[in-house]
Amino acid sequence: MRLYYSPTSPYVRKVMVLLHETEQLASVELVTASGTPLAPAEGLPAANPLSKVPALERPEGPTLYDSRVITQFLDTRAQAGLYPRARYFDVLTLEATADGILDAALLMVYESRLRPEPIRFPEWVEGQWAKIDRALDALNTRWMSHLNGPLDAGQIAVACALGYLDFRHDARDWRRGRDALAAWFEAFSRRPSMVQTAPAA
């Protein structure tokens, strides 16, 4: 299999963490494919018409894309149980919450990096952060018992989302007022899979 990836993409990191956790890394060839919506990586549209990473090329069928599709495929392949049937929809909801955080955080980055300064929209940026703020509050209250339970794909997704906030939006101080979530993330970040996939500054 070939994984089109960028080492700084938080969506890719979810897949990489799962590969480490399920001991499947040796089964995947990594193909660097860094780009932006304005300049897609060369060759990527042939694998994924949306020109987004991650994309997983496999010999037995069409290329898979969207990190949530890839993580479920790899979990099924390894029979790792990271999408347990007993709490399947909870895991999916937690993963969707984490991906919503990432979507908003990435749009904030694009606004400052890709949009010319005279037409940037600060209120829109703050609106994206408001989504993140609400999601973080929900994680810190409603989801802590799940986060502190057995390892699953929802936890991996949340950890990668929080790591991305540290990586790109550290000045926002997402930990303030969220002691439970911050403590959980500090512990989870010590997992070898998280250490080995941390993005370089």
Automatic annotation (TrEMBL):
Coiled coil: none annotated. InterPro entries: Glutathione-S-Trfase_C_sf, Glutathione_S-Trfase_N, Thioredoxin-like_sf. Residues 1-82 form the GST N-terminal domain. Pfam families: GST_C_2 (PF13410), GST_N_2 (PF13409). PROSITE patterns: GST_NTER (PS50404). SUPFAM superfamilies: GST C-terminal domain-like, Thioredoxin-like. It comes from the Bacteria. This is Putative GST-like protein YibF.
